[in-house]
Amino acid sequence: MYFNLDAEQARRGHTNQYVADILEISRVSYESKKKSGKFTVPQIKQLCKMYDCDFSYLFDSSRPQKSA
């Protein structure tokens, strides 16, 4: 799971359907790709451009630090 991708999507109020439409795939496919990480290179580029983030940030799979 890509927590930063989820965070950027939520920050902008984008639904899974909206992002799927941008990527020209089904909502179910988008949700599956978010879980599996199996995006194509063009999809990754589109997501980085859409959220104005670099790959290493947007697709960081480490868990976010919990606040004390």
Query: How many strand units?
Result: 0
Helix content: 55-70%
Order of SSEs:
HHHHH
How would you sum up the global shape?
Answer: globular
Ranges with pLDDT <50 over ≥5 residues? none
- First-last Cα distance: 23 Å
Strand fraction equals: under 5%
Mean pLDDT: 91
SS summary, helix count? 5
Structural class designation:
mainly alpha
Question: Rg from C-alpha positions?
Answer: 12 Å
Largest sheet: none
Tags for this entry?
mainly alpha; 68 residues
Task: Walk me through what this model shows.
- It is a single chain.
- The chain has 68 residues and is an all-alpha fold.
- Helices cover 62% and strands 0% of the residues.
- The protein is built from five helices and no strands.
- Helix 2 (16-23) packs across helix 3.
- It is globular and about 35 Å long.
Short overview:
The chain has helices spanning 3-11, 16-23, 27-36, 41-51, 55-58.
Helices and strands, with pairings:
Layout: H1 3-11, H2 16-23, H3 27-36, H4 41-51, H5 55-58
Helix pairs in contact: 2-3
